[in-house]
Amino acid sequence: MFKKITFYLLLTLGLSAQSYAQTQLQEPAQEIAKHQTTPLTVGITEVPPFVMQADDGSWEGISIDLWQDIANSLGVEFEYQPMKFSALLDAVENSQIDVAVGALTMTADRDTRFDFTHPFYQTGLSIAVPEVPKHDLLASFKAFVSWQFLSVVLGLAGLLLAAGFLLWLAEHRKNPEQFGGTAAQGIGASFWWAAVTMTTVGYGDKAPTSFAGRLIGLVWMFAGMIVVASFTAAITASLTVNNLRTGIEGLSDLPGKTVATIADTASQRFLEEEHLRYQTYPDLTSAMASVVKGETDAIVYDRALLQYRNLHQEQPLSILSGVFAQQLYALALPEGSPLRAEISQQILRITEDNNWSNVRATYLGKEQ
């Protein structure tokens, strides 16, 4: 009997505590709505897939869905105020808006200008380069007439000429039947001998007979194997680099390249800290277009934004695997805003719910 009484007592206390906690969470939200006299001004910048304007003029996206859920829970009225990204940061710093909603990266510098809520999305920077053309006969032809390819061929011809000339010096008097005639004829025959010997074809139509000539031939046979291997590697590298166009396969390849990015963003600060040469653009579309046109070699920007925008590009880029400089997205409020604690609490509630993964999948797909 005593155990039953104890059980019901604990159950009652637990339910009371839960009810009290829920009441405590609801009271601040109700207080915010109760004392609201004017709609909140919510500054937004179009950054797909976080903030986008639909054909009917309404706003949608990951950040928009998040904010509307928060506003509904708090019972507050609001109105969107679209603006450019740089103006958005100034507006929240100067308390011209109540909340900034978008894809705002949390940084130490920005934290001195305004307050951040709890983060709602984790991402990082990635590199995008021109996409390698597939089955392009014109591109293949251009690769074979490129300076890299021609320089390798000229270098090989020079080696053949040098080996042939040495053999001609040793053979043209002692073996005039094969390497005689005029200097041009003799050197031409020696050049032919050097080529067939290097490739191990060895037709046998010409062969040195003197001691010096045979010694040169023996050395050239072994040297030819090295030359052929080096020539093959050089040609492969030349064609590969030409196909890659930029030769960028990772972060370590960026020094010496011109990198596109967006002005006043975390990606720009990263490039500055790494002392990399970069060119800023007002938006992601123009930055990606600069890579397609060849004005820049690559773009460094938030991976999620690159992936979404790349899906809608007429000429998509190739986004390299790997993420660096991890970043967190959050909402921004004027310093000391009374809304910060409640909005942060709502963000925790939303992001811990299973439905949050469905919201992200709606805009970014299942692969995160």
Automatic annotation (TrEMBL):
Protein's UniProt keywords contain Transport: yes
Keywords, alphabetical: Glycoprotein, Ion channel, Ion transport, Membrane, Receptor, Signal, Transmembrane, Transmembrane helix, Transport
Subcellular location: Membrane
Claim: Transmembrane helix is one of the keywords in the record: yes
Annotated transmembrane regions: 147-170, 182-203, 215-235
Signal peptide per UniProt: 1-21
Coiled coil location: none
Membrane topology listed for this record: Multi-pass membrane protein
Molecular function (Gene Ontology), one example: ligand-gated monoatomic ion channel activity
Pfam families recorded: Lig_chan, SBP_bac_3
Domain Ionotropic glutamate receptor C-terminal per the UniProt entry, residue ranges: 41-358
Domain Solute-binding protein family 3/N-terminal: 39-367
Organism (species): Oceanisphaera avium
A GO term from the CC aspect: membrane
Gene3D superfamilies tied to this protein: 1.10.287.70, Periplasmic binding protein-like II
Protein name: ABC transporter substrate-binding protein
